[in-house]
Amino acid sequence: MDLDFLTHTPFWIALGQIIIIDILLGGDNAVVIALACRKLPPEQRRKGIIWGTAGAIILRVILIAFAMTLLALPFLKFVGALLLVWIGVKLIAPEEDAHDGIQGSDKLLAAIKTIIVADLVMSVDNVIAIAGAAQSSGDHQMLLVTLGLLISIPIIVWGSQLVIKLMDRFPLIIVAGGMLLGWIAGGMLVSDPVFANTEKWLWMPKLEQTTALKYGAQIAGALLVLVIGKFVASRRPKVTHGSGHA
C-alpha cells in the first residue's frame, strides 16, 4: 500500500479542516444527544449516547459519499429545516405524561431515533463542507472523512455527557438547545436550492443569499422554536406529582 500521501501537506491540512468541522458540528450534536438522552435512567444514558452516535456516524459517511448530489436536491434543506423546528419544539415542550407507561427500552430506542434523525438533518450542510475539504486533498477522500470522524467521535460523546450534567443543574440549557435547532433550521431553509438557485425552479421566490438574510433567518428560527415550544408547554395540563396520595 502506497503511504506517500502521509507526507503530503494538503492531506494533513484537509484532515485538520475535517476535524475542526466535525468538532464544530459536535457542539450541536452534543446538545441534541444530551437532550434526547436526558430522561433516560443513568444506566441507559451511555447506551443511548453510544448507539445514537454510532448510527448517526454511519449515516453521515453514506451522506458524504453522495454529498454533491445532495447539495442540488430541491426542498431537501426545506424539509430538513421543518423537521429540526419540530424536534426543537419537542425538546422544549416534552410529552411528559405520554412516557409514564413506556418501558426503558422503548425510551432508549426513541432517544436513539431522535439522535439519528436530528443528526441526519443537521449534517447536510456539514457533510457538504467536509466533502469540500476532502476534495481539496485530491485522492484518499473517504480515508480523510473516516479518520476525521474517528478522531471527533470521542469529543462528541464526551461533550454530550458533559451537557447532560449541565442540564441537570441548569434547565435553561434545554430551552437554549431547542433554540439552537431552530437557529440551524432557519439558515438551512433560506439556503435551499429552490430559493438560492436563480436558474432553476423559477416558479419559487428567489432569495439573495446575503449574510443579513442568513442571520435574520437563523434568529427567526430560534425565536419560532421558543415561541411554539412555550405555547405548547403552556397548553399542556399541569400534573402535580403526589396529588393522588393521602
From TrEMBL:
Any stretches that span the bilayer, and where are they?
12-37, 49-69, 140-158, 170-195, 215-233
Q: Which InterPro entries match?
A: Integral_membrane_TerC (IPR005496), Integral_membrane_YjbE (IPR022301)
Task: Describe its membrane topology.
Answer: Multi-pass membrane protein
Print the keywords alphabetically.
Answer: Membrane, Transmembrane, Transmembrane helix
Please indicate which superkingdom the organism of origin belongs to: Bacteria
Kindly list the GO CC terms recorded for this protein: membrane
Q: Where in the cell is it found?
A: Membrane
Q: What does the similarity note say?
A: Belongs to the TerC family.
Could you identify this protein by its name?
Answer: TerC family protein
Identify the species of origin. Answer: Comamonas antarctica
